[in-house]
Design brief:
The chain has 416 residues and is of the alpha+beta class. The strands form two sheets. An eight-stranded antiparallel sheet has the order 4-3-2-1-5-6-7-8. The chain is 47% helix and 15% strand. The longest helix is centred in the middle third of the chain and has 31 residues.
Length: 416
């Protein structure tokens, strides 16, 4: 049952899961590149000082965004629409124009929705679910194959494809679980299965309305270090009743532009904190080295899909059909077979026929198909494989047939 649970999602959703893993590995490069390209602040800048410096260098500033990578971007009225500029986080000076990488914009949309809107988002979410099933069932199969958790680091045996599949899975399993679980959570959030977690405070009913004070003197902004800033939205120019909208790592509030007072601050909910943490783990934004590890783990998925499909195909190709196979409920003798590469089925076939020749009603099946009860059975035989050579392979079946006489010596006591 466990093997079927592992194989079915892999065969049905293997292509889309591999595709999503490849696009995810491309996106994992973004936080790495940002980390090595973004200039870090060398002084402890607060939000008031930064906003004051930016508004000095740029006219018509509308908002300032502080990314998880440390990059500071200011959006302002460029005359022909909103323009964006990169800001030095140490001085507030303009470093140059900003535009998002078209490559990462393309892959972000491709990864999220396949450019198919909500239908694509649904496919993306289902691929995350399939990866969860594959990762969990694969981990349990690995533990069972190696003989328990205590042997989890024991060198795997088997064919080349089996060893490659096991070793890559052992390397990538933690990263794949993190990626699939966090991706699944965000997908549920986007579809509203998990309620929206954003914390938005009530807009102030009344403000001072006096002459706006210099930005550098606003106490509420002075109290927030740049490291805690997420976004600062400026009030509409000339409107004394408007306010600064301040979003920090801990919540959101409003700042009176005349008095500098913090108004209606709403702390992040537990759900919002969980979402932000999972978003960071899934994307690597703000944790570039972890994102790089997830990207490497994702690169293992296409290879795992290929080797897994090849292993399944070999097992199906080499599977031996058992003639005269009685129903499980009516058989007096039941043979259960456990085999990774079908080698043990050669023995089972010979043993099955020998028992049938002795007038037994014999049912032969896989150990994974073990039934709760065999009402008519008087004998239960279990054949389990080792990692040595077997007689289920085509080139060995003649040799397996020559074991008939030896097996008959075992069958004699079972004669009715």
């Amino acid at each position: 049952m466990l093997r079927r649970l592992h194989s079915a999602p892999g065969l049905v959703a293997g292509l889309i899961v591999a595709f999503m893993a490849i696009t995810g590995s491309v996106l994992s490069l973004q936080p790495v590149m940002d980390h090595f390209s973004v200039r870090s602040a060398t002084v402890a800048m607060n939000v008031a000082a930064l906003a004051n410096a930016v508004s000095t260098h740029l006219t018509g500033v509308e908002r300032i965004v502080h990314a998880a990578s440390g990059a500071v971007t200011a959006y302002y009225d460029g005359g022909k629409g909103v323009a964006a500029a990169l800001i030095d986080p140490a001085t507030g000076a303009v470093l140059g124009d900003y535009s998002p990488s078209p490559i990462f914009v393309f892959f972000t949309e491709l990864h999220r929705s396949l450019f198919l809107g909500m239908n694509g988002r649904f496919a993306s979410g289902m691929s995350a679910l399939a990866l969860i099933v594959l990762a969990v069932s694969g981990m349990l199969l690995l533990v069972r194959r190696l003989g328990g958790w205590q042997n989890i680091f024991v060198t795997a045996k088997g064919t080349t494809s089996q060893r490659l599949h096991v070793e890559l899975a052992r390397i990538a399993i933690i990263g794949l679980l993190v990626s699939s679980l966090t991706g699944g959570y965000m997908s549920l959030t986007s579809f509203g299965v998990i309620a929206s977690t954003s914390s938005v405070g009530q807009f102030p009913v009344s403000v001072d309305g006096g002459t706006p004070a210099p930005i550098s003197s606003l106490n509420a902004l002075q109290a927030v270090p740049l490291a805690d800033l997420r976004e600062l939205v400026f009030p509409y120019a000339g409107d004394r009743t408007d306010v600064f909208t301040l979003t920090t790592a801990s919540g959101q509030g409003y700042v009176d532009q005349a008095t500098g007072a913090l108004l209606n601050f709403t702390p992040n909910s537990v759900g919002q904190s969980i979402y932000e943490t999972l978003y960071m783990l899934h994307t690597g934004q703000g944790l570039w080295w972890f994102g790089a590890l997830l990207g490497l783990a994702a690169l293992c998925v296409p290879v795992l899909a290929g080797t897994g499909t090849f292993i399944w195909w070999l097992r199906r190709r080499n599977q031996i059909k058992v003639a005269n196979n009685a129903g499980a409920r009516h058989a007096d003798t039941v043979i259960l077979v456990g085999s990774e590469g079908n080698s043990t089925w050669g023995f089972a076939q010979v043993l099955h026929q020998a028992l049938v020749d002795q007038a037994h009603q014999v049912h032969t099946g896989a150990m994974n198909d073990l039934a709760v009860d065999y009402p008519a059975a008087r004998h239960l035989l279990v054949l389990a494989a080792t990692y040595g050579g077997g007689y289920g392979r085509p080139e060995d079946r003649d040799h397996g047939a020559r074991q008939h006489d030896a097996l008959n010596q075992y069958v004699k006591p079972l004669r009715p």
